[in-house]
Amino acid sequence: VYEILARTVYGKRKKAEVGVDRLVAEGAFAAAFPLHEGPFQLPKQDVRPDDLNRRQVLYFYWARWSKWYKYQPLDHIREYFGEKIALYFAWLFYTAWLLPAAVVGTLIFVSGVMSMGTNTPSEEICHGGSSYRMCPLCKTCKAWNMSDICTMAKLGYLFDHPGTVFFSVFMSFWAVTFLEYWKRKMATLAHHWDCMDFHEEEQERPRPEFAAMAPTVEQNPVTGVKEPYFPEKTRLSRMFTGSMVIVLMLCVVIIFLVTVVMCRGIISVMMYHTGSPVLRTEAATIANISSSIVNLGLILLMGQVYTALAEQLTKWAEMHRTQTQYDNAFTFKVFIFQFVNFYSSPFYVAFFKGFVGYPTNYGTLFGMRNEDCGPGGCLIELAEQLFIIMVGKQLINNIQEFILKVKAWRQRRSLANVLGGKVSHEPHRWEEDYQLVECGGLFEEYLEMLQFGFITIFVAAFPLAPLFALLNNWVEIRLDAHKFVCEYRRPVAERTQNIGVWFSILEGLSHLSVIANAFLIAFTSDFLPRLLYQYKFEKGLHGYVNFSLAYAPLNYTYKAFRDNDGNYTLFYWELLAVRLGFIIAFEHVVFFVLRAIDWIVPDVPESLELKVKREHYLAKQALAENQEALL
Amino acid sequence: VYEILARTVYGKRKKAEVGVDRLVAEGAFAAAFPLHEGPFQLPKQDVRPDDLNRRQVLYFYWARWSKWYKYQPLDHIREYFGEKIALYFAWLFYTAWLLPAAVVGTLIFVSGVMSMGTNTPSEEICHGGSSYRMCPLCKTCKAWNMSDICTMAKLGYLFDHPGTVFFSVFMSFWAVTFLEYWKRKMATLAHHWDCMDFHEEEQERPRPEFAAMAPTVEQNPVTGVKEPYFPEKTRLSRMFTGSMVIVLMLCVVIIFLVTVVMCRGIISVMMYHTGSPVLRTEAATIANISSSIVNLGLILLMGQVYTALAEQLTKWAEMHRTQTQYDNAFTFKVFIFQFVNFYSSPFYVAFFKGFVGYPTNYGTLFGMRNEDCGPGGCLIELAEQLFIIMVGKQLINNIQEFILKVKAWRQRRSLANVLGGKVSHEPHRWEEDYQLVECGGLFEEYLEMLQFGFITIFVAAFPLAPLFALLNNWVEIRLDAHKFVCEYRRPVAERTQNIGVWFSILEGLSHLSVIANAFLIAFTSDFLPRLLYQYKFEKGLHGYVNFSLAYAPLNYTYKAFRDNDGNYTLFYWELLAVRLGFIIAFEHVVFFVLRAIDWIVPDVPESLELKVKREHYLAKQALAENQEALL
């Protein structure tokens, strides 16, 4: 990109902006960066804290593992790195809010483990012996006994008991309360750092790429200064380009999803044909896990492709004038990409898997029978998927850290080559800093917010998600701190008053999570069928397993509320009405309460608002006096 | 109130604010008001427009019936009456937006009338003869033939055909588009009138009542000026007081609702026992209409009580410092009151009427059988109610106009008494203006916004509502204009940048309307049962009437999807699932699209935003230069 840019700049020299960026782009300089204030290593002899430079202070009090239990010194971070990076670390404060969610989630999980033994339906499955002969799972497979899947049925209860329903309601409120808090925190920080009235468009210069590409020069409508100008495409045509790409990308994701589904089916059939009894009973699980790993690989591969594509799109197709506009457009696009990328597979498992039809009339896709969820229910498969994605992502993060180290090492070697080992003097600050890696921006860091989706959208399936997220973020804070203080060149400080488009994304995620949880509880979980069974027959869950099975020809059974001809029973329709009614009630109540919270809690803390008004008032007074003095 | 206030002011003289308001309150002056600029009557001989005073200009170009087709001269209104009143007339501009809604609504209604004859179910009812013997409607009533209600069934189709479904979707989008437009309009006007940065709390003085009641004097946290101070109750305790009153009021409304329901039942039974065949067949309609009128009376009575109650509450319990805060709190309270007051009865008819149980097992309330909707369906009853309430309100408006005239006349007479008829000189301006009525504020005018609810919330039942609203508002504009120019004393001009809490109310109404329409179409309308019947039996609507009837003992029939034992049939449960599914689909799609519209359309027009930024920038530059000049 730099090469192309440099050539473009040459071509349009008369209009191009000048500055160090251009010299770097043209290759006159190898790099340009602000210097660190000194080494981060602490001096060996004892020194007073006053003698430390600011980098050492940050290292000593913040960027070390041994400080894991400490708050983050946001003001110091801001002083050294600027508002943008400080705000990122302030955002990581959401880690603290994860604590209650993690505790409740763990309690829910533990209560599931405790009551696992006393669960009537899984007891009935385990002690059913050969009384329930289940339909074969594929054309050439054999029938099987329901008691074979005793373990899975017991495990399934872990992810599908009344506690998870409570937990998903809890997490909806948690998410909204957190966002309300974050809004207030953001306002307070922006005021504290004096960037509340920071308007990007007024003060930001055009991006160098924009300046290089712009065909004409025109007056900036705000400042009146002549600036490179690009005839702005209309908002609508931009949107159109953007949406077309998103649609294209959706198609690709769906193709990959189908691939993974087919892959899972093939693995599953292969397992059955090995003949090994262990492989046969665990076929679904093995197929599920292995295809999840394939899926993860695809996700990561596609993620790279998508990000590159989005960068090109944002850069060449849309031509945003300022860096902030560019960042927002890019962020939004990549987020949509990544969201569909990461979440399509869990969504498929949660809501679309299991539409199998019934024996003698199975639904098919490309000649293969539609997938059914394993005997433990869809929720346990969803939990497996989420676990693999979350842990997998963590693994990739570690690999990325490793790549960073390799980069740093190569940088250092190339510099050593240049100097030719003939360094006689104490290395200069700029030499030392040149050995460090260039900071790649906060985009990748913020993309971790996908995590927020995992802990809210599918929380009903995986109550341990907040705990994992908490542990991950706890590590992340010190890891990132260490990177910024010790491994990165000092980035150019940037001002900002909020986290930009990320906040809208978070809000969207929290709303989506309410809807997803409602559907998850209503359709994927076994919660409502059990409840309705208990209510209708007034004998607890005794006989529920038998009741939930339908008879196929040859006296085989399968899980569905159908009569012997495959038509839905009255209970099925009653249950459907209950399910849909539950969704309506859940969404209306939760959204209403959330709106009420949003309405009652002011976005700016009252004391801060008074302060701002006071300042406003004083400024006006001062202006009036000033003018009097002039007259 | 003035008496009490005057005494309070006397008692706490040292802390009280001084000014003309206090002198009026103490009776030293009879009144204090800004003067009109002259007579509104046009001079008899021809004059050039430049010679007219501003009041005459307003009268000539705006406040006359003959100008009904003209836009409103907002800038002139603002110049003469101030921003607050001008903004009210700008709001009335929503009249123009009603035009498309009224046209579409009328088309829908006409298409209903056109297709009334070709409607299969009502044909089947009319030609059924005595083949359907219906269950008696009360204990002592007789059974009746379904063909008796042929007319009602035909009329019912007017309010319950596929067009109304389309219309309610259309109106949801209409409402949101209108609000988006209004947001932009409001921002433009606020900028145009230079009150965008108007912060009430900085510039508004405490209300006289507040000053009089305040026990101590403290520094204003913003201006630093010593001011009467009232130890502010916490937000929460205020909310609590407010909610308690609202709950209390809800109870009262429900009691009145039950009264009206009982009243309707009693009238209906009485009709049956008159023996007249006409009265018998139309019993339900007559009962419905007469009880609607009773209901309207109660609504108006309670409205007066509520408003008085809310005023007291806001004044004494909450103690708001500024007039704006007071107005907002008062407005919100009265709106909630009036909303429940006006809408509870339509809500009852739309959603709660018709839970009657089945023969041999009727549900009862205080020993009376629960009400069922008339044979035309609940929608036609709802339409009747809405019609009566809307027309009734219009009637009351006219009565209020009359009261205003009476007031003006009394004012004039009392002044004549004071002067004793010994007026020799040409009357002074202040004498003429004193004869006018004091302007009661815009609150009553804005309360007309309840109308917005009628045309959005129950639009499925009454497609003509937008047309009525349009006609009403068209008249209202010139009527209000005439009042302000000719009949009111000139009000003190007030600044404001928006319509305050009313906007939130409108937004709430538009959201509520989506939900209400979804439920109305799903449950109250016959749209979905018919659709499902057509889909399942593939023979159009033939036989639908027979299918929708259930058999009671003695071979009587009644309208329900039940078997002979009174249990719900499979079709009922299927239908219930379809209904709930429809609600979910409708709400998600509509809300999603609405959110997208809200997100895509910027709240402030782009050109205005540039202008504001430019001004901001110039101000900053000027400040910098100013400071340089000082140094």
Automatic annotation (TrEMBL), chains A, B:
Subcellular location(s): the record lists: Cell membrane; Membrane
Q: Which InterPro entries does the record associate with it?
A: Anoct_dimer, Anoctamin, Anoctamin_TM
* TM spans (from-to): 85-110, 164-182, 245-267, 287-309, 330-351, 452-475, 499-521, 541-558, 570-594
Domain named Anoctamin dimerisation: which ranges? 1-74
Membrane found in the keyword field: yes
Q: Which organism is it from?
A: Oryzias melastigma
What keyword terms does UniProt attach to this protein?
Cell membrane, Glycoprotein, Membrane, Transmembrane, Transmembrane helix
Q: Give the highest taxon in the source lineage.
A: Eukaryota
Q: Is Nuclease among the key words of this record?
A: no
Question: Chief localization class?
Answer: membrane
GO molecular function annotation: chloride channel activity; protein dimerization activity
Question: Which is a Gene Ontology cellular component entry for this protein?
Answer: plasma membrane
Membrane topology listed for this record: Multi-pass membrane protein
Q: Where is the Anoctamin transmembrane domain?
A: 77-615
Spell out the protein name for this chain.
Answer: Anoctamin
Spell out the family assignment given in the record's similarity comment: Belongs to the anoctamin family.
